[in-house]
Amino acid sequence: MRAVTAPRSDGTFSDVTRRLFSAGLFVAGAAALAWTWQFLFVWFAGMTEGWLAPWDVAPGRPPHGTWARAANDFFEVPGALLPSRAFVAADAGLFATTLVRAQRRAGVPLAFAASNVTFLLLDMALVLFVAHPMGAALSGAIGPGDMAGYHRAWPAIVVTLALLVALFAVQSRCSFRRGSSWRTR
To answer: Could you tell me which of 80, 84, 88, 142 has the fewest CB atoms within 10 Å of its CB?
Structure first.
């Protein structure tokens, strides 16, 4: 009896070997995808605290009745995890939709995990090295009391939203047809 992983005389592998490889690839990709969702959940929770509830720990909150105070109070307690949950739910929905439509399902989780990691690295780099310095420069913040507020956070929010739109556009157009690699339609 031949070993499961031994190639045939023509250099191809048996169906059993291909199925085992596909199952292993799917499981490894699903684990990587779950890790990216967890990490992005924490990333968005931290960014919500810093960008959408900027007066959580800073002195000098805006007065009651202003839009800034209402938004800060919402994202400080009841809506603190709303962006994180919305992202994971939207990405899981796109993943499920792609998985149902795909003919070659083994690589779907790994492709989504790779695109999530790419989004995260781009977002971190652009936010830390472009958006935050731009927010500080455009707001004219000169002291610690000027550091909290939406006037500093809007460039980071715009950059992240633009990257989210790009991520979801790429993920929604994923095609996993037989005989093709991961690509967009």
So the answer is: 142
pTM reported for the whole predicted model? 0.79
Virtual torsion, Cα 13, 19, 25, 28, nearest 10 deg: -130
Please report the beta strands in the chain, taking only residues with DSSP state E, as ranges in sequence order.
174-175, 183-184
Q: What local confidence, expressed as pLDDT, does residue 90 receive?
A: 95
| Angle, CA 95 vertex, CA 94 and CA 97 arms, to 5° | 65
In 94-112, which positions are buried (b, 16+ CB within 10 angstroms) versus exposed (e)?
Answer: bbeebeeebeebbbbbbbb
Residue 50 has a pLDDT of: 84
Q: With a cut of 70, which residues of the chain have pLDDT below it?
A: 1-14, 57, 140-148, 175-185
Q: What is the rounded CA–CA span in Å between residue 76 and residue 79?
A: 7
